[in-house]
From TrEMBL:
CDD domains: SpoU-like_rRNA-MTase. PANTHER family: RRNA METHYLTRANSFERASE 3, RRNA METHYLTRANSFERASE 3, MITOCHONDRIAL. InterPro entries: Alpha/beta_knot_MTases, MRM3-like_sub_bind, Ribosomal_eL30-like_sf, rRNA_Methyltransferase, SpoU_MeTrfase, SpoU_subst-bd, tRNA_m1G_MTases_N. This is TrmH family RNA methyltransferase. Keywords: Methyltransferase, Transferase. One of its GO terms (molecular function) is RNA methyltransferase activity. The keyword Disulfide bond does not apply.
Length: 257
């Protein structure tokens, strides 16, 4: 087992690069932090490159870390690579998922995310899509990186359970419609209440940017656009909350058919 004490160690500098999108793209790796996420990662050992843990913490006795490279690090190193205020002192360096567009061929339920930039919102939507049993999440242009540390923390390990790809939503919509999947946009203009929509055997739902919603260009290509009626004085819903309402409603309709 290796031990790294100094935050100036070249390996630490490489780990810190994984906190940037550029560093993740160059290496094909990303950094997970925290007991829950590392425990989730251990269920997919082939995706783990290395586990790092601070010398002052105890590894849970039920964890099976056979055949996993382990490095002990000092508290100084732990603080250097952590992006949380109170680090739990445990990390995993993992390989990025290599999902492909062909994943679209098998699914019946899809969440398309258009230029959502808040990592907490994206992570929460991934976690919600996982809970709702959605088959595939598609991250469109302008959406925050899947492996952003805040996205990973908000998703709470759901990125291990779901198929998630990044691609042009224009292309995704075209491919979905070619296979007969109706695509629904979310909009307050020229839209029906989501409660009036009938789902037969598949659906794709698009949710959009926090400030601007789904782009007008995409809304013009959908089969139908829907909105969620509001009964109070608020003018809008948080995008992750709206996605949760719509995904569970549409999935319930799909499962009942």
């Amino acid at each position: 087992m290796d031990y790294i004490q100094s935050a100036k160690n070249p390996k630490v500098k490489q780990w810190k690069k994984l906190l940037t999108k550029k560093g993740r793209e160059q290496t094909g790796l990303y950094l997970l932090e925290g007991f829950h996420l590392v425990e989730e990662a251990l269920q997919f050992k082939n995706e783990i490159e290395e586990i790092l843990y601070s010398e002052n913490i105890m590894i849970p006795s039920h964890w099976n870390m056979d055949h996993v490279k382990i490095t002990t690090i000092s508290e100084e190193v732990s603080k250097a690579i952590s992006e949380t205020e109170s680090s739990q002192g445990i990390f995993a360096i993992c390989k990025k998922h290599q999902y492909e567009e062909k994943m679209m061929e098998k699914g019946k339920s899809f969440l398309l995310i258009d230029a959502v930039q808040d990592p907490g919102n994206v992570g929460t939507m991934i976690r919600t899509a996982d809970a709702a049993g959605i088959d595939l999440v598609i991250l469109g242009d302008g959406t925050v990186d899947l492996y952003n540390s805040k996205v990973l923390r908000s998703a709470q390990g759901s990125h291990f359970h779901l198929s998630i790809i990044s691609m042009s939503l224009q292309k995704a919509i075209s491919l979905l419609q070619e296979k007969g999947v109706p695509v629904f946009g979310t909009s307050l203009q020229s839209a029906e209440s989501y409660k009036k929509v009938t789902i037969d055997d598949s659906f794709a739902m698009i949710v959009g940017n926090e400030g601007n919603g789904v782009s007008e260009e995409l809304l013009q290509t959908t089969n139908q656009n829907v909105f969620i009626p509001l009964y109070g004085r608020s003018e809008s819903l948080n995008v992750a909350v709206a996605a949760g309402i719509l995904l569970f409603h549409f999935q319930d309709s799909l499962k009942s058919n």
